[in-house]
């Protein structure tokens, strides 16, 4: 299989500011590496605060014109953008696979998923309704309208380089906001290609701007937006530590924040669960993108009565996963994003084994004729996991499944909730009364009940506790980019 593009013009390496592709002011470059080989294959602008400020200026200048467009006209731009994403989906998938490492089949799925948000919000743009409040005092008319918050800064992660930025930009533009965006340092090319298609769709200059940088320069770029009074909202997906930093540093200007942060998702298999369905759900939830997702199950609790049977079924499925690069059609698990990620996974496995865990499969780096790069790690199952292990409290962000035992419903709900995080939770049971009880007691923004694949553009995505606040997708997602205005009009007596 080749990752050669049909449209080479989608491979952009410059910033896009005020409708123009331009090098950063300092002229520096940041290298992009292929996780499958470790080799550099592109270089993008390594921007500074000056570039970030230029982008904010362009966005602020374009804001009045963009917000004044009728919602249906903004929707038409988004529909054209969506059509171009679908038309160029294969090239976009190849770019994702090349810079992020996920198998091509998964990359195609990500393109479709990201495109679904653009289509959804093109339709939601025309449904931002206000209210007429029933008359409270004679002679006064009370109205409520919704308006765009202003310039939005979108900061996105590397694990879903197209979907995460699409589900931030699309509602912002639909609401009438303008955008400055900063993609992850490891995966800027997908975001740049997406913006190239937005340009082709005719989105006006300054409405959508993107600035790239290295890890060393990211604080400078984002810091410029955090202190800029013209930027009225920050939307961020990433770690809880960075989310807290953004909240602190933006406090002086009281920006609106949407934070989709880290998780430590529990996956509970009760004794009455349909075990094959539970294994299927865990495979879908855990091994998507090699376990590099924020909703990936980190702690798998299995009832004593079915523990051995579940582990046996799971190992058979895990050992069938083929590890390799996106250039092979049969690859199901790609490389991890970089060496730091592999080091963390390996340290979690070694810590678990040192603290009483038993390895059933995997547990080591992979290096062979197929997976011959530096960042591959074998899908892993560890039994007899306990809460002294690092992987019980820290996101592994890799293809490692630890199986914890439990015997009591109240006990497992307490353990599931015993974390500062609350993004996703999963459980399997055929007891309808238990389904109602447990779903209500789990402290998470997203709950999968006898289901491991949760994502949908029609559903609200977001967490509670230290997993952040705000919701992406669904009809609620537009509200995060709008502010409510109350009108009180007199003179009707």
From TrEMBL:
<dbReference type="GO" id="GO:0009450">
    <property type="term" value="P:gamma-aminobutyric acid catabolic process"/>
</dbReference>
<dbReference type="InterPro" id="IPR050740">
    <property type="entry name" value="Aldehyde_DH_Superfamily"/>
</dbReference>
<dbReference type="InterPro" id="IPR016161">
    <property type="entry name" value="Ald_DH/histidinol_DH"/>
</dbReference>
<dbReference type="InterPro" id="IPR015590">
    <property type="entry name" value="Aldehyde_DH_dom"/>
</dbReference>
<dbReference type="GO" id="GO:0004777">
    <property type="term" value="F:succinate-semialdehyde dehydrogenase (NAD+) activity"/>
</dbReference>
<dbReference type="Pfam" id="PF00171">
    <property type="entry name" value="Aldedh"/>
</dbReference>
<feature type="active site">
    <location>
        <position position="260"/>
    </location>
</feature>
<dbReference type="InterPro" id="IPR016162">
    <property type="entry name" value="Ald_DH_N"/>
</dbReference>
<feature type="domain" description="Aldehyde dehydrogenase">
    <location>
        <begin position="29"/>
        <end position="485"/>
    </location>
</feature>
<protein>
    <submittedName>
        <fullName>Succinate-semialdehyde dehydrogenase</fullName>
        <ecNumber>1.2.1.16</ecNumber>
    </submittedName>
</protein>
<dbReference type="InterPro" id="IPR016163">
    <property type="entry name" value="Ald_DH_C"/>
</dbReference>
<keyword id="KW-0560">Oxidoreductase</keyword>
<dbReference type="InterPro" id="IPR029510">
    <property type="entry name" value="Ald_DH_CS_GLU"/>
</dbReference>
<comment type="similarity">
    <text>Belongs to the aldehyde dehydrogenase family.</text>
</comment>
């Amino acid at each position: 299989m080749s990752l050669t593009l049909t449209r080479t013009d989608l491979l952009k390496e410059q910033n896009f500011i005020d409708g123009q592709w331009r090098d950063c002011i300092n002229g520096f470059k940041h290298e992009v590496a292929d996780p499958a080989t470790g080799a550099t294959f592109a270089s993008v602008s390594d921007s500074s605060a000056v570039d970030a400020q230029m982008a904010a200026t362009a966005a602020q200048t374009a804001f009045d014109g963009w917000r004044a467009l009728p919602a249906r006209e903004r929707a038409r731009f988004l529909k054209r953008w969506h059509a171009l994403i679908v038309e160029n989906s294969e090239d976009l998938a190849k770019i994702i696979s090349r810079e992020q490492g996920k198998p091509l089949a998964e990359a195609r799925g990500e393109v479709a998923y990201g495109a679904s948000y653009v289509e959804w919000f093109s339709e939601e743009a025309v449904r931002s309704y206000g209210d007429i409040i029933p008359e409270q005092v004679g002679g006064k008319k009370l109205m409520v309208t919704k308006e765009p918050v202003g310039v939005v800064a979108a900061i996105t992660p590397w694990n879903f380089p197209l979907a995460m930025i699409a589900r931030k930009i699309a509602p912002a533009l639909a609401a009438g906001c303008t955008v400055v965006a900063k993609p992850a340092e490891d995966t800027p090319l997908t975001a740049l290609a997406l913006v190239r298609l937005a340009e082709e769709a005719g989105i006006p200059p300054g409405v959508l701007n993107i600035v790239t940088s290295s890890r060393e320069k990211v604080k400078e770029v984002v810091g410029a937006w955090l202190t800029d009074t013209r930027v009225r909202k920050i939307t961020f997906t990433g770690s809880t530590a960075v989310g807290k930093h953004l909240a602190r540093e933006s406090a002086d200007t009281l920006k609106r924040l949407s934070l989709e942060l880290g998780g430590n998702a529990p996956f509970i298999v009760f004794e009455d669960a349909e075990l094959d369905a539970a294994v299927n759900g865990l495979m879908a939830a855990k091994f998507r993108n090699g376990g590099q997702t924020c909703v990936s199950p980190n702690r798998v609790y299995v009832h004593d009565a079915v523990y051995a049977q579940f582990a046996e079924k799971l190992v058979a499925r895990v050992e069938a996963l083929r590890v390799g690069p996106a250039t092979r059609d049969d690859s199901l698990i790609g490389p991890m994003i970089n060496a730091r990620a592999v080091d963390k996974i390996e340290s979690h496995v070694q810590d678990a084994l040192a603290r009483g865990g038993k390895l059933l499969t995997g547990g080591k780096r992979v290096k062979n004729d197929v997976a011959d790069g530096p960042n591959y790690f074998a899908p892993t199952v560890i039994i007899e996991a306990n809460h002294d292990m690092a992987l019980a409290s820290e996101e592994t962000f890799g293809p490692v499944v630890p199986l914890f035992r439990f015997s009591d419903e109240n006990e497992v709900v307490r353990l599931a909730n015993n974390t500062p995080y609350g993004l996703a939770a999963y459980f399997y049971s055929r007891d309808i009364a238990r389904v109602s009880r447990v779903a209500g007691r789990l402290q998470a923004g997203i709950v999968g009940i006898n289901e491991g694949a949760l994502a949908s553009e029609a559903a609200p995505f977001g967490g509670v506790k230290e997993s952040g606040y705000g919701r992406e997708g669904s009809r609620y997602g537009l509200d995060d980019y709008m502010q409510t205005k109350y009108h009180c009009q007199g003179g009707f007596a």
